[in-house]
Write a structure and sequence with these properties.
Pfam families: Amidohydro_1. This protein is of the alpha/beta class. It has 15 helices and 18 strands. Helix 8 links the parallel strand 12 and strand 13. It binds ligand LTUXU72L and zinc ion (ZN).
Length: 433
């Protein structure tokens, strides 16, 4: 069998339904797709243009970051140690008033550099001037689900909300047939979006079969606001509007009671868990073990770099694993395998992309990463799941492939000019302080 690329002798964790893994495994790629995977003995018939020696590496599907505001890398460290509303209203919104499409594109390029170098191959993003984010992701060679944020006040991008829907329609037309960029409908939250905006956005998502992504129940202040306005919890409010569904991805879901959890489960709604952002803004702890028990699909997200302050899925995974242990007093919750599934295949499921990415299987896109395992902090290795969650870090990533193309090889960026981008952001940052 002739192929373009053969990854040989790696410790392969497929993250597929059967959790198949090989200590000495191989994976063959032709074009964008995985065409064979298994033990090295089973792949002796493979003849490849290029071989990658993965003898000292763990081979994994690329991480799926299900909730980002990529261009907020521009505001990394601008305002720390504040609660959500104070942080947003007094620091972030004034800085965002100075944004242009070019600046959003630059911030997104910086985010792509950081995400690629830490093993993320797919991200789901909500922001202003989101076409610029889509273009940055495309230049980087990454996979992205992009969405212009919709809310009930004028946007610097499209103006009044009526124009927002026309803008999103144009985005859908523009990116519709792109192999790696998908558009989604992204109303900000129940507190910044009136019921008719939410229903119209959901209808559009339904018509085009696209994800519907929204911030939900992030803080107690949000819950009180929605209770006062509609007499329901934020989750019950969305349920009554008919916008909870398997297409719906709700970010945060921190302040949730048993009824809210039952509503998410009954409607098939997915959750984006952002533990570091929730901890930094002191929003609280999302009841993720209860979500999993109820059968709710949960993916992992970093949120923006202004509330985290990085886009590093390794630290997000380790935080998720540790936080829920200490919160529940039960060290068996959120074991390493469960957390790694959230960062890969479950994240892909939340984006409706599990037929394409999130696991290493024949017929899926070749979105994969190599984690080197020869450093002292990775030695010895009894269990690769344990090492990925509790020992490894982003500096252990050596190679990242998206759709069969190396976007980061031997710790070097292939698709973007890191020096130019970092210099551009340093210069741009002068106008925000
Ligand atoms: C999400 S893009 C639109 C808008 O949302 C702001 N934002 C960033 N992080 C959060 C968060 O955790 N909750 C709510 N809103 C957030 C962002 O700064 C943009 O203005
Ligand atoms: Zn967010």
């Amino acid at each position: 069998m002739n192929v373009d690329l053969f990854v040989e002798n790696g410790w392969i964790l497929t993250m597929d339904g059967g959790d198949r893994a090989w200590e000495k495994g191989g994976m063959a790629v032709r074009g964008e797709e995985i065409v064979a995977i298994g033990s090295m003995e089973s792949l002796s018939h493979i003849r490849a243009e290029e071989c990658i020696n993965a003898a000292e590496a763990i081979v994994l599907p690329g991480f799926v970051n299900v909730h980002t505001h990529a261009s907020m890398t521009l505001f990394r460290g601008l305002a720390d140690d504040l609660p959500l509303m104070n942080w947003l209203e007094n620091h972030i919104f004034p800085a965002e008033a100075k944004l242009t499409e070019n600046l959003v594109g630059l911030g997104a390029e910086l985010a792509c550099l950081e995400m690629m170098a830490s093993g993320t191959t797919t991200f789901c993003d909500m922001y202003l001037f989101e076409n610029a984010v889509a273009e940055a992701a495309n230049r980087a060679g990454m996979r992205a689900v992009v969405g212009e944020v919709l809310y009930d006040f004028p946007s610097p991008c499209y103006g009044p909300i009526e124009k927002g829907f026309a803008h999103v329609e144009k985005m859908i037309e523009r990116w519709n047939s792109h192999p790696r960029i998908t558009v989604a409908l992204k109303p900000h939250s129940p507190y910044l979006c009136a019921p008719d905006l939410l229903q119209k956005a959901f209808q559009m998502a339904r018509t085009h079969q696209l994800p519907f992504v929204i911030h939900l129940s992030e803080t107690l202040a949000e819950k009180e606001k929605i209770l006062a306005a509609y007499g329901k919890s934020p989750t019950a409010h969305l349920a009554s509007l008919g916008v909870l569904s398997p297409q719906t991805l709700a970010a945060h879901c921190v302040v949730m009671d048993g009824e809210d959890i039952a509503l998410l489960a009954e409607t098939g709604t997915c959750v984006a868990h952002n533990p570091q952002s929730n901890m930094k803004l002191a929003s609280g702890i999302a009841p993720v073990p209860a979500f999993l028990q109820a059968g709710i699909p949960v993916g992992l997200g970093t949120d923006g770099a202004a509330s985290n302050n990085d886009l590093n899925m390794f630290s997000e995974m380790r935080t998720a694993a540790l936080l829920h242990k200490v919160a529940s007093g039960d060290p068996t919750v959120m074991d390493a395998r469960t957390v790694l599934r959230m960062a890969t295949i479950e994240g892909a499921r939340c984006l409706g992309m599990d037929h394409k990415t999130g696991s290493l299987e024949v017929g899926k896109q070749a979105d994969f990463i190599l984690i080197r395992r020869n450093a002292p902090h990775m030695t010895p290795m009894y269990n690769p799941f344990s090492h990925v969650i509790y020992a490894a870090g982003r500096n252990d990533i050596s190679d990242v492939f998206v759709a069969g193309r190396g976007v980061y090889r031997n710790r070097t960026f292939i698709t973007l000019d890191a020096e130019r981008i970092c210099a551009g952001v340093r210069e741009a940052a002068r106008s925000f302080c």
